[in-house]
Specification:
The complex is a heterodimer. Chain A is an alpha/beta fold. Among the domains of chain A are: about 180 residues, P-loop containing nucleotide triphosphate hydrolases (Rossmann fold), CATH 3.40.50; about 100 residues, no CATH class. Helix content of chain A is about 60%, strand content about 5%. Chain A contains 31 helices and 12 strands. In chain A, the strands form 3 sheets. Chain A has a 7-stranded mixed β-sheet with strand order 1-3-4-2-5-6-8, with helices on both faces. In chain A, strands 7-9 form a two-stranded antiparallel sheet. In chain A, strands 11-12 form a two-stranded antiparallel ribbon. In chain A, α18 crosses α19 and α19 runs antiparallel to α20. The longest helix of chain A has about 45 residues. By secondary structure, chain B is an alpha+beta fold. Chain B is built from 2 helices and 6 strands. The longest helix of chain B is centred in the middle third of the chain and has 9 residues. Classes of the chains: A alpha/beta, B alpha+beta. At the A-B interface, α5, α14, α15, α18 and β10 of A face α1 and β5 of B. β10 of chain A pairs antiparallel with β5 of chain B. Bound molecules: guanosine-5'-triphosphate and magnesium ion. The site of guanosine-5'-triphosphate has 26 residues of chain A, from α3 and α6. Magnesium ion binds next to α3 of chain A.
């Protein structure tokens, strides 16, 4: 056998992969700069094998990575330059197979099959080689231009596995490069190989069993030929024929609707909810087109009669037999099996009957407690800096340059102060929460939560992976909604989307924290205050989880009726998080991103608040009209008109609820001595001041409790609603997602108020 | 003797015989793609606080399956 020379890059023979002379090119990361692209590389592979890590290392971008299957759910593109050519790299969601049902896997499948990549880079988990080879063998059936990135080699080594790369490469007929993507090992060689395969310098010859020459292969050939004639733009007609023979309804539907053709032509993002939608122009054309598909489909059904009942089983079994053969050929196992003892011991505890739930609860409580207590000091400092010091400076400045009254008001007392408030209230908890959460995520804790909670979700008629999307929701509901793509059943995905709002997002914590420490904390002696107010916030968060179950259950008994679908979840090994790296990226990436969003919404809101408080009609400000008008209704809910108005102003972003409430309260209660006067979101870093203010505004403990409850249970912010619309492409479900929690919030606060009156 | 994967206990190995015919469509594809094909050896990996799902070692990975799924997998069980 002499393939090893044809399939391995020449540099391999010349020695050290790290040798700078190995190839003259050097990597230039281009980020999102994709002006000129010579070659397109698709990143395929099972979930959680390090695809996004490889992507980041080569493009210099910051795709989120995380130690659980299903982290990436959208297509991401980035570029790099190497050896004189420009490459576009496409990061894809993970997939176990090219046959898929969940939205994320579908995105991966469509690009691999129909996106016409120049090279398909398959990232493979070295510790789970046999299983990963199933996908590899499937892809090798549809394309020759494949490079295998055998990743996670450090973990394989830790387990004592020895993998013979050369013989693996020989068995598959394509180059195999071993890497530790996380520590950027082996990337140089990977680049060399990619560029050699892309340019055609290195010709790969996958050794694939074809479909044989029996009935099956004849059936495939016959359908494939027809498909090629009718739809020349569709690639991989063999694969499609196999799906037609197997009567894959999703594929037939997407072929009929023209969606598959759209994929073949260019880019459409996939949506599970509009399979019936015709994307072709004329109805006639569409009908004609559907007829053609019908004819082909009929032929497939006829041919199928002659095949074994479960011929698909046989195909997969063959892959696994082959995979097992290759694995036994290439892997040497250690004499004594070095299983991951630490993992197993820890998993036994984390999933045990005694400790499973207490550990989850304690970790949640711990994260919240660290966030709440830790955020206190930096918040005060920021308020001191931005509100007590910078604001007067700006005022002085504006006085010196004689800014007109209204401009000074809108800019400094409106926009600047709203933003300063948002920063000092939002930044500290986020800067603490996100890194903590990411550390847990990187460690591999999230899938264990999903594992432990699955039964409750099942009983509620929901999907076990909803636990994962709910966890993402604690960061940001919009992100949680996008994450639901990992849920394969459209019904269960909708449930997850609608209920994601009950995961208390970061934008709402500041409200919870502030109100809890002012009102609940003050009910007990001061040395207990921190503990009790943390407990109150944790209670609200847990109430949100409870409501997630209840509402999921109700939905699956009513509008989204059905039983919970099949479920399988891979539990990844625990991975020690890269501590500083995590802190750095989650600060730069997530925190700054969310903060930026908050600021963008705070600026106009600040201006608006200032204006409604300062534009008078008959000597009464607009704000006062609105508040007085809403007051009677709000009182029924145990709230007040100011709070309701603040929620309306804060529809774009929950983060600005508290600043708005404070400002309106000071304006309308006519307090003097605090703040700067009319319409100013003033500076308060002192809790007694705040208490005085709230008392003057007529607040009671009931107001505080209902504000906390209402902050949990009300409509999602506009970003989340927009995301829901994008994901479902349905006004109906978007409306339901908005109104359902709002109504619930109104009813629940109403009931609490009535009950409160009884005591 | 033919049993179900859900009968598996610690210190035993299950060898897959076949999938129940009632398990069709995507559920079947998914199990197959995870490597649950005739001949595959499966071990118990994890308990669950609520008894369901259960984690199994399947081809080098820990995969959680609900009882509904593990009841559809016919296996032979051996003591280890
Ligand atoms: N020890 C080790 N960890 C790695 C390596 N490559 C990636 N990881 C870690 O593996 C986890 C998964 O990495 P991702 O890049 O998110 O995986 P992915 O394939 O994009 O996952 P999905 O998007 O869910 O399909 C992360 O916690 C990475 O830090 C590696 O070579 N060694
Ligand atoms: Mg990824």
């Amino acid at each position: 056998m002499n393939n090893s020379t044809t399939i391995l890059p020449k540099t391999k023979n010349s020695g050290c992969e790290n040798c700078p002379q190995a190839r003259d090119g050097h990597l230039k990361r281009l980020g999102i700069n994709l002006d000129k692209t010579d070659f397109v590389i698709a990143l395929a592979g099972n979930p959680n094998v390090g695809k996004s890590t490889v992507f980041n290392a080569l493009t210099g971008l910051n795709q989120h990575t995380g130690n659980w299957p299903g982290k990436t759910v959208t297509r991401a593109e980035g570029g790099f330059q190497y050896a004189g050519a420009n490459y576009k790299m496409v990061d894809l969601p993970g997939a176990y197979s090219l046959i898929s049902k969940s939205a994320d896997e579908e995105i991966a499948r469509n690009f691999i099959l129909f996106g016409k990549p120049d090279v398909t880079l398959i990232v493979v988990d070295a510790t789970r080689l046999e299983r990963n080879l199933n996908l590899v063998l499937q892809i090798l059936e549809i394309t020759d231009k494949v490079v295998i990135c055998l990743n996670l080699m450090d973990e394989a080594e830790r387990m004592g596995l020895k993998i013979d790369i050369r013989s693996l490469s020989r068995d598959l007929g394509v180059p195999v490069i071993s890497t530790v993507a996380r520590y950027r090992k082996g990337l140089k060689e990977l680049l060399n190989t990619l560029s050699a395969v892309a340019t055609g310098e290195l010709v790969t010859k996958p050794k694939v069993r074809s479909y044989g020459n029996g009935k099956f292969s004849r059936a495939i050939k016959s359908i494939s030929t027809r498909l090629k004639n009718e739809f020349p733009e569709i690639e991989n007609t063999n694969w499609l024929s196999e799906r037609l023979l197997d009567e894959d309804e999703d594929i037939i539907a997407s072929l009929k609707s023209g969606e598959l053709l759209d994929h073949a032509r260019g880019d459409v993002e996939y949506s599970q909810f509009d399979a019936e939608k015709l994307t072709k122009d004329g109805i006639d054309l569409a009908l004609n087109y559907q007829n053609e598909v019908d004819v082909i489909q009929k032929e497939a059904t006829k041919l199928r009669m002659g095949l074994a009942v479960n011929f698909h089983d046989e195909l997969v079994e063959n892959h696994f037999t082959e995979a097992a053969k290759i694995a036994s050929h290439c892997i040497t196992y250690p004499d004594v099996k070095k299983r991951l003892y630490f993992d197993q011991a820890l998993d036994k505890i984390v999933t045990s009957k005694t400790w499973g739930f207490p550990i989850m609860f304690l970790l949640l409580a711990l994260v919240l407690w660290i966030t709440i207590t830790g955020a206190n000091y930096p918040s005060k400092f920021l308020a001191f800096l931005l509100l007590d010091n910078v604001h007067p400076l700006l005022k002085d400045l504006s006085a010196q340059i004689h800014l007109p009254f209204w401009l000074d008001g809108v800019l400094i007392d409106g926009m600047y102060l709203a933003t300063a408030w948002v920063i000092s209230v939002m930044l500290p908890p986020m800067a603490i929460f996100f890194p903590l959460f990411t550390l847990l995520e990187d460690f591999g804790f999230l899938p264990r939560v999903a594992y432990n909670l699955d039964k409750i979700f099942r009983k509620a008629g929901a999907h076990g992976k909803q636990a994962l999307t709910m966890s993402m929701g604690f960061g940001c509901n919009a992100a949680g909604v996008v994450a639901t793509r990992i849920i394969d059943s459209p019904r269960e995905r909708l449930i997850a989307i609608i209920t994601n709002n009950f995961a208390l997002c970061n934008g709402r914590w500041p409200t919870q924290i502030l109100i809890a420490s002012l009102f609940i904390g003050s009910l007990v002696p001061s040395y207990l205050a921190g503990l009790i107010s943390s407990a109150a916030v944790i209670f609200v968060a847990v109430l949100g989880i409870f409501l997630t179950f209840v509402v999921s259950w109700l939905l699956s008994r009513t509008v989204l009726r059905g039983e919970s679908s099949a479920f399988s979840l891979e539990l990844p090994p625990y991975r020690p998080p890269r501590f500083w790296f995590t802190i750095y990226t989650s600060l730069i990436d997530r925190t700054v991103f969310v903060l930026w969003r908050a600021i963008i919404f705070a600026l106009p809101a600040g201006a608006l608040i200032w204006l409604v408080s300062n534009i008078d009609l008959n000597g009464i400000s607009l704000a006062e009209y609105l508040v007085t008008w809403m007051d009677p209704f709000a009182i029924l809910l145990g709230l007040n008109g100011i709070i309701l108005l603040a929620y309306i102003v804060a529809i774009p972003a929950n983060e600005i609820v508290i600043p708005t409430i404070l400002m309106l309260t000071v304006q309308l209660s006519g307090i003097t001595g605090i703040g700067e006067g009319s319409g100013v979101i003033f500076e308060l870093d002192n809790q007694t001041d705040l208490m005085h203010l709230f008392e003057a505004g007529g607040w009671t403990l009931l107001t505080a409790v209902n504000l906390m409850i209402f902050s949990l249970i009300h409509n999602p912010c506009s970003t989340t609603l927009y995301t829901i619309y994008k994901e479902t492409r349905s006004l109906k479900w978007t409306t339901i997602s908005g109104l359902l929690p709002l109504l619930m919030g109104l009813i629940i606060t109403f009931l609490i108020t009535q009950a409160w009156g009884l005591f | 003797m033919q049993k179900l994967l859900s009968d598996l206990k610690y210190n035993q190995v299950a060898k897959v015989i076949k999938l129940n015919e009632g398990c069709q469509g995507f559920e079947r594809f998914r199990l197959l793609d995870l490597g649950v094909v005739p001949g595959t050896e499966i071990r118990l990996a994890l308990d669950n606080p609520l008894n369901d799902p259960i984690g199994y070692w399947i081809r080098g990975a820990v995969i959680a399956l609900r009882k509904e799924q593990s009841n559809k997998i016919f296996v032979e069980i051996f003591d280890e």
